[in-house]
Amino acid sequence: MTYMKKPSVRHPDLPKNELGLTRRDYEGLVSTLCAGCGHDSISAAIIEACFELDLPAHRLAKLSGIGCSSKTPTYFLNRSHGFNSVHGRMPSIATGANLANRDLIYLGVSGDGDTASIGLGQFCHAVRRRINMVYIVENNGTYGLTKGQFSATNDKVSQSKKGEANLFEAFDLCTLAIQLGAGFVGRGFSGDKGQLVPLIKAALRYNGFAFLDIISPCVTFNDHEASTKSYGYVRAHNEAMDRLDFVPKLQEITAQYEEGETTSVPMHDGSMMRLHKLDKDYDPRDADNALAILRKRYERGQVVTGLLYVDDDEADLHELLNTTKEPMNAVPMSELCPGSGELEKINKDFR
Amino acid sequence: MSSSDVAVKSRGMRPTDISDPAYFHKVVDCQWACPAHTPVPEYIRLIAQKRFTEAYMLNWESNVFPGVLGRTCDRPCEPACRRGRLQEKPVAICRLKRVAADYRGDVSDLLPKAPKKKNGKRVALLGAGPASLVVARDLMPLGYTCVLFEKDPRGGGLMRTNIPPFRLPEKVLDEEVGYIVDMGVETRFGEEVTSLKALLDEEFDAVFVGTGAPRGKDLNIPGRDEADANIHIGIDWLTSIAFEHTKKVGKRVVVIGGGNTAMDCCRSALRLGGKDVRVTVRSPRADMKASDWEIEDAEHEGIPIFDNHQPKEFIVENGKLKGMKFALVEAEYSDDGKRTLVPTGEEVVFECDDVLMAIGQDNAFPWIERDIGIDFNEWEMPDVDKTTMMSTRPGVFFGGDAAWGPENIIWAVAHGHQAAISIGLFCHGKDLKAERPAPGASLVSQKMGIHEWAYDNDYSEDGRFVVPHQDQKITLKDLKAEVELGFDDELAYLEAERCLNCDIQTVFIRDLCIECDACVDICPVDCINFTGNGEEQDLRPRLRVPASNLSQDIYVSDVLKTGRIMAKDEDLCLHCGLCAERCPTGAWDMQQFTYVERQANPAGQPNCMAYIK
Ligand SMILES: Cc1cc2nc3c(=O)[nH]c(=O)nc-3n(C[C@H](O)[C@H](O)[C@H](O)COP(=O)(O)OP(=O)(O)OC[C@H]3O[C@@H](n4cnc5c(N)ncnc54)[C@H](O)[C@@H]3O)c2cc1C
Ligand SMILES: Cc1ncc(C[n+]2csc(CCOP(=O)(O)OP(=O)(O)O)c2C)c(N)n1
Ligand code: SF4
Ligand code: SF4
Ligand code: SF4
Ligand SMILES: [Mg+2]
Known about the structure:
The complex is a heterodimer of chains A (351) and B (613). Chain A is α/β, with parallel strands linked by helices and 351 residues long. Chain A is built from 12 helices and 13 strands. Chain A has helices at 38-52, 68-71, 90-100, 112-118, 120-128, 173-180, 193-205, 231-237, 287-299, 317-321, 333-336, 340-350, and strands at residues 60-64, 81-84, 105-111, 133-139, 142-143, 149-150, 184-189, 209-215, 238-240, 242-247, 262-266, 272-277, 303-310. In chain A, helix 1 crosses helix 7 and helix 4 packs across helix 5. In chain A, 47% of the residues are buried. Chain B is α/β, with parallel strands linked by helices. In chain B, helix 3 (40-48) packs antiparallel against helix 4 (52-63) and helix 8 (130-139) packs parallel to helix 10 (170-181).
């Protein structure tokens, strides 16, 4: 970590977005994570994505659990709402907040320990309930904050820094998310912002549960020769399935691809995802195909990245529950709690 | 713009050669801009540490007159200062130099001495301005016999005769001229050189001409001769004040000219009894030649400046100056930017008792015979070699304002150092170009521990501090009362902290980089990029912030593992070291770059040598 604060001075020619803000206006405090941590790059990618989407920071809420990854919301978007919950419990907080105010954008940040161990049950139900949120796992294959124990996403072949073997098979969070019905599932790598930033942008614009598993090397405990979550390994085995262009509403499509290789996926707000296939066998709208390819490639030791699955027609929790369009925290108290007379009436119906 | 959006290109810019001292020297904007290449950031750090004597000596070795320059330097370093490119004012480099001079301890034991045993070489120095004095300072400790000719009764040149004492107290000048003359220079003060030919007969091994540009320009318009008694050439008038021949001036004074001499004239007039003193300039105000701070000081004393006023006529009544007539003009610019001043047809008259003319200086060499091998060009200026300072006659050198026309003190100093090197080589039969000493340079890591550096890397958010001034009730009454009071040590510390330490370089070690992006993300001014290579004109616009300042270089690495390169725009780097603090592998290191111009007498540069380490 660094002791001095990041100077507030900035480049006078720094580009500005529609709101007149620069990317530096989306920053948070200086990170206290280890120098070179992948999590910091993900924070930078989130900053870039929010800047490019012209998001007003106060319309977004950051939610997290416990872990180095879960600490990172302090390091970006310091003008947004935030809740740093207990270990593995971020999905509950997200569910509650989302029900109370459906108008905010919810960005959950978690770790592989926070999600795949202690919070696994919570995670599964958040997916199942189709909470309208972005759920990011900063996946380093280890419990970074508690000094480097294997996590449930650490591959069996991937030894510890001191050479201890890992006895258990890893499970794949993207596979799990697709199986549980997440409508938007992608995998990125902290070391490739060119791929990551559009993924985050599209996830933020997606209506429904958007899951991103982002491989994020832990420079201190899991960036060694025998690790499969190191910068070196991921760079050498990264297999991108597609290339995503996020095209905001009212903006012209500029990237040109051959006919037939590009799928356009409309988003709720009128923006568009343009998916350019890099692997001809891959079809991100077919869950069975996606699951099969994920398994096959994993067996070959490849790290499959890109937008892996998308359902542009998924209903989120509010639609399923048929809640009011108005955020509940804005519904007048008299309607929200119509009084004991009304309660009596309802109770009577059950007698 | 993110990395993988850019196709990886293998061809393009070549990796930067940081072993070439010119590369990092250019990054130290102030030192690069200083004609004498004074190691600015190093002395600023010494001031912050309250090591004033060391800061003074480091300056003295490079620029010879820190006390004088700390008050009067033209400060080319300040417009160059990186801080000024961050939408802020530059570091007050010049006034910090003054702090080193004001608070220094006794330096007499630290000054080089001339040896008892001379080396048998005799050098004539013509004119006792800064240029000649520097040649003496560099050569005396080597055993040369230096004979200094000066028509005035005392040494210092225009520093004494033209820079008024309210800007430069006599004591400060005396001390620093004394350090040199007291080495045992043979002075022939009060002796005007009237024939170079005759002087050459005196058997000197070398002659240095440092006689300045002594002729003030005149205006030949109607009334000039009739009103002569009340029309004064600015530089001559200032000289006669300095030697106390002139002690007062009329109540209403018109100053003609928009340069620094005009500013010194009007402010002096105010102190010698002028009540209504006005400055008139031919050009629009924005084109005035005077430094902004000199104009500011004059206006602060209540002197109005009338621009677009072209002198037409001296109005004379009964053989006495009555006033000055001006035609009003307007500047028009042609497509290629050329300016013409077009009369508007209007005329005005300023009534006045005296007129001071400060419209420029010319060189004049009536005392140099044209048949002794010194070639003069069509403007009557000698042909002087830019590197060696030697004229077309071997052994005769020029420097300061005498070489290429009026400049300033710090240029005179730089010329003096170069001329001294040449004279040394010439007297020993060596080649003036091939055997010139190369500058010294070194690069030393500042790392002391994790996130601990041998310099203070934190960034000060303070704006430029203002130098306190003496009360005008005192200064306007007394020609000798210094206007600026200088920073005290507390203000000096705060101002010193504004310096970005541009000599502490970011050094990139390609083989250690794992391309984690940590440095890109932390850099406060978005200097660092990992991207596909390309030719410079292709690379510059596609950096995180397009690198539009072409005077600043792009630091480029060799190809990295992903096929990309590291490209850093040096332009706005704060030298804050955050990149190095965030790098997990030590691929960035903060290293102090030191650069020292060699002088004729390397032994006279002990502080600079220590500085090279
Ligand atoms: C009014 C005024 C204000 C200035 N203010 C500043 C300032 O604030 N900062 C700055 O950096 N620069 C300033 N300058 C410019 C600066 O003073 C000169 O550029 C500098 O002094 C040049 O140094 P030099 O050694 O070449 O010659 P000079 O300083 O001009 O010295 C030449 C000397 O040679 C003597 N001399 C000439 N001919 C002969 C001869 N034939 N025989 C014997 N002696 C002779 C002269 O008497 C003089 O003493 C100012 C100039 C003027 C006119
Ligand atoms: C209830 C509870 N159990 C255990 C812990 C100890 N603990 C803190 S962080 C952590 C693991 C974090 O791992 P991960 O989510 O992968 O985060 P990382 O630090 O790797 O980013 C554990 C077990 C805790 N804080 N609370
Ligand atoms: S910030 Fe300091 S080192 Fe940099 S140019 Fe300015 S004075 Fe020189
Ligand atoms: S020292 Fe490093 S982090 Fe600081 S401004 Fe320069 S390049 Fe950026
Ligand atoms: S922080 Fe270090 S290792 Fe990471 S990209 Fe920068 S130089 Fe390379
Ligand atoms: Mg983890």
